[in-house]
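Quarterly update, task 2.4: iron/sulfur cluster-bound model.
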Amino acid sequence: MLEDQALISFKVNAMPSRRVFLQLVPAAGAVLVVTGARAQTQAPMVDEKDPQAAALGYVADAKRVDKAKFPKYAPPQHCAVCQLYQAPATAPTGPCAIFGGKQVAGPGWCSAYVPKPA
Ligand code: SF4
């Protein structure tokens, strides 16, 4: 009986107070935001030699597009103004939906290019 009371007392005292809980929730949220941002910036760059990239004619600089192989390319098409570019147009690199979230160069291009709506 005395042991039960001691155990209950321990459990009640071990539980964090409401104030401590309310202090921990924003801190945990901040950690998640920072972790998520870091994960996004750590995505690898698409390699032009990757089979999927090569098949789509991806180049990190649209000036190097093989125009004979990809005649639909026309300046000023490039990744930063493509609908599938998941970063602001001013960002030097950004994740691309075609490449599973891997980073592509803003000045790059591939044959899956879709212009952003005006
Ligand atoms: Fe660039 Fe768009 Fe091709 Fe992705 S789909 S590599 S953003 S041109």
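Highlight for this quarter: DSSP finds three helices and two strands in the chain.
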